[in-house]
């Protein structure tokens, strides 16, 4: 089913991203900021994964971006068949970006391919530096690591370089973006990367 999703995305030139993180890292805030800043120039679609509620989907819908909520109940991750059903309902246009916000969990989602082109792990400065070595599978299977909440660093006992060193021990090919979804600091390099990836698909 993941291969089927991937083939569908490739046929329509859909750049699909699987956003993964622990709860509270700022995934949805990062997504909101990205959509608000880029939706006038890029086509976006969003799939929101949570065990319960439609809270996150409502936040995305408020930005006038097409969104589908998937509630997994007792499940701790999205699976490719869930994404397939949601994609069918979204009716995506070609040359678009699909953001799949997975359930907040640094363990189970690492083991499930959804058909995405890139996996993006988000970690916040409030989580400490050792998450990559505590949850290595997630960082090993990701292509990009976004370090969020850098605006809080002056108030935290947090070593940014140590976090990167730990992450690179697990995955030497990780690409990093340091951002604050709240203030907008560092977001432009992330946006430039998104534009470049979509262009590569064409």
Automatic annotation (TrEMBL):
This is Hydrogenase nickel incorporation protein HypB. Residues 18-177 form the CobW/HypB/UreG nucleotide-binding domain. InterPro entries: CobW/HypB/UreG_nucleotide-bd (IPR003495), Hyd_mat_HypB (IPR004392), P-loop_NTPase (IPR027417). Belongs to the SIMIBI class G3E GTPase family. HypB/HupM subfamily. The gene is hypB. Coiled coil: none annotated. Keywords: GTP-binding, Hydrolase, Metal-binding, Nickel, Nucleotide-binding, Zinc. The keyword Ubl conjugation does not apply. CDD domains: HypB (cd05390). It comes from Robiginitalea marina. The lineage of its organism: Bacteria, Pseudomonadati, Bacteroidota, Flavobacteriia, Flavobacteriales. SUPFAM superfamilies: P-loop containing nucleoside triphosphate hydrolases. The keyword Nucleotide-binding applies. It comes from the Bacteria.
